Q: What sequence folds into this?
C-alpha cells in the first residue's frame, strides 16, 4: 500500500517497486531553498529543473498518467489506472500531485527570494532570467494540474515545512488557466529570446502558450503562438527519418523545444519501466495490440513503427516502447516538441474552418512520418485525422489521455479499445488525493465522493 502524504508541499523521491508508484518522503526541506547569493540562487534553479524531472513528475509519474489510461498502453503489473478505476487513495495520483506541488514550492521560493539577493556578481539580466524560468515552470506545473484535476489550489507562497495545515480552497479550472496565462506573460517579459532546449526561454513560453490556447479553445491565439515557434526554422524543425530525433544518440535534437535532462545520478524512470527485460528494463509498459498493428502497417504507422521495440521470449513476441533506450537511463524527458506545434496549429485551423491550412500542417507531420499526404477538405475528417496523428506521434508522452478528455472523446475511444469497460463522465478528471480532501478540506471531483 502507499504511504500517506501529508497536506502541503512534499518533496518526494520515487523509486521502482512492485507498485505503480511508491514515495519515500524526505525529512527536511532541501538546502537548495536556502537562497542567499548568486551561487545558491543557481543551485535553486538547478533543483527546480531536477524536481520537474523527478520520477513523480516528468521523469515518469505524470507522463504515465497521460498514456496509461489512454487505452493504448497496458501496465504489465496490475494497477487500477490502466483499467480507469481511478481512486483518490491511489499512489499514482497522490504521489504525482505531491511531486507537482513540490516543484511549485521551489518555484515560489525562487520568485520570492531572487529579488532580495544582494550579490555584486549577480547581474539584473541574470536575476530576471532566473525569475522568468521560475514563472515558466510554475505555469507549466499549474497547467498540468488543471488539465488533470480541473480546479486546484493556487499556492503562491513558499513554505519551509514539509507538512502544512494551511487550507487553500480550489480555484476553478478557468481561474487556474487564467493564472497560467498571466505567468507565461510575465515569464515572456523576463526571459531571453534564444534557443535553450533544457532551460526556459521566450521560445519555450510561446510553445506552452500555444498548448494552453488549444486547451482553452482560443484558436486564433493558438495559431499565432504556434506560428511564432514554427517560424524559428533555424532552431526547431521536423527531422527525418522519424526516429532520428530520439534514436541517433544525440544529446539534443532540433525536434525538441524543451526537454529535461537525466543522468546516471538522476536517471529516467520512464526508460527503466518502459524497456524490455533483455534491454535492462523492467518492462512495465506494453503497447496495446491495436496500436501495435496500426504502427506496423505502412499506410498508418509509416516510420513511427520505430516507437516500438520487440523481443521474442518463450516463442512469444513482446512489444515495448523504444522512445527511451539509453543505458544507463539518461534519456531526456521530452516536454515540448515542434511536431506538437504543427498539430496544434492544424487543429486550431480546422476549428476555424481553414481546411487548407489545417491540411498543410497535418501533412507536414505525416510526410515526416513517412505517410501519404491526405487530400480531404472535410473539417470533421480533418479533426479526426489530427487527433489520430497525435495518438501515434505522442504515444509515449503525456498527451493521449488529456487529448481524449479535452475533446470529449474519452468514452468513445476507450470503450472501442476496451469493450468491457464503461466510461462515465467523471473519468475526464483525476480524483483529488484523499488526504487533500479529508485533511485539507478540498472539495472532491464529482464521481469520487
A:
Amino acid at each position: 500500500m502507499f504511504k500517506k502524504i501529508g497536506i502541503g508541499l512534499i518533496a518526494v523521491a520515487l523509486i521502482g517497486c512492485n507498485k505503480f508508484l511508491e514515495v519515500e518522503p524526505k525529512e527536511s526541506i532541501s538546502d537548495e531553498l536556502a537562497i542567499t547569493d548568486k551561487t545558491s540562487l543557481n543551485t535553486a534553479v538547478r533543483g527546480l529543473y531536477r524536481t520537474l524531472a523527478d520520477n513523480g513528475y516528468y521523469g515518469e509519474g505524470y507522463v504515465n498518467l497521460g498514456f496509461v489510461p489512454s487505452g493504448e498502453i497496458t501496465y504489465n503489473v496490475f494497477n487500477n489506472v490502466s483499467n480507469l478505476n481511478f481512486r483518490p487513495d491511489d499512489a499514482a495520483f497522490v504521489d504525482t500531485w505531491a511531486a507537482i506541488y513540490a516543484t511549485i514550492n521551489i518555484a515560489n521560493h525562487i520568485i520570492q527570494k531572487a529579488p532580495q539577493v544582494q550579490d555584486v556578481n549577480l547581474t539584473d539580466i541574470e536575476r530576471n532570467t532566473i525569475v522568468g524560468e521560475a514563472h515558466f515552470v510554475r505555469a507549466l506545473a499549474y497547467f498540468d494540474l488543471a488539465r488533470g484535476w480541473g480546479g486546484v489550489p493556487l499556492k503562491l507562497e513558499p513554505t519551509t515545512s514539509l507538512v502544512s495545515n494551511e487550507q487553500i480552497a480550489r480555484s476553478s479550472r478557468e481561474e487556474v488557466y487564467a493564472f497560467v496565462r498571466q505567468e507565461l506573460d510575465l515569464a515572456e517579459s523576463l526571459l531571453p529570446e534564444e534557443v535553450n532546449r533544457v532551460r526556459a526561454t521566450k521560445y519555450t513560453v510561446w510553445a506552452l502558450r500555444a498548448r494552453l490556447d488549444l486547451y482553452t479553445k482560443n484558436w486564433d491565439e493558438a495559431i499565432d503562438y504556434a506560428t511564432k515557434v514554427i517560424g524559428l526554422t533555424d532552431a526547431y524543425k521536423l527531422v527525418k527519418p522519424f526516429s532520428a530525433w530520439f534514436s541517433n544518440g544525440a544529446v539534443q535534437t532540433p525536434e525538441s523545444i524543451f526537454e529535461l535532462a537525466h543522468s546516471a545520478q538522476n536517471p529516467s524512470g520512464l526508460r527503466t519501466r518502459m524497456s524490455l527485460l533483455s534491454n535492462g528494463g523492467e518492462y512495465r509498459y506494453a503497447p496495446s495490440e491495436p496500436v501495435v498493428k496500426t504502427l506496423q502497417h505502412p499506410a498508418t504507422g509509416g516510420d513511427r513503427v520505430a516507437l516500438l521495440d520487440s523481443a521474442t521470449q518463450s516463442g512469444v513476441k513482446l512489444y515495448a516502447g523504444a522512445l527511451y533506450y539509453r543505458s544507463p537511463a539518461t534519456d531526456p524527458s521530452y516536454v515540448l516538441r515542434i511536431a506538437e506545434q504543427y498539430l496544434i496549429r492544424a487543429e486550431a485551423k480546422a476549428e476555424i474552418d481553414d481546411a487548407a491550412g489545417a491540411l498543410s500542417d497535418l501533412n507536414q507531420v505525416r510526410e515526416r512520418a513517412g505517410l501519404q499526404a491526405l487530400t480531404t477538405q472535410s473539417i470533421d475528417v480533418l479533426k479526426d485525422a489530427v487527433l489520430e496523428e497525435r495518438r501515434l506521434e505522442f504515444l509515449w508522452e503525456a498527451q493521449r489521455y488529456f487529448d481524449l478528455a479535452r475533446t470529449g472523446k474519452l468514452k468513445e475511444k476507450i470503450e472501442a479499445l476496451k469493450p468491457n469497460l464503461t466510461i462515465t463522465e467523471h473519468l475526464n478528471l483525476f480524483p483529488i488525493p484523499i488526504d487533500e480532501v479529508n485533511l485539507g478540506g478540498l472539495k472532491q471531483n464529482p464521481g469520487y465522493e
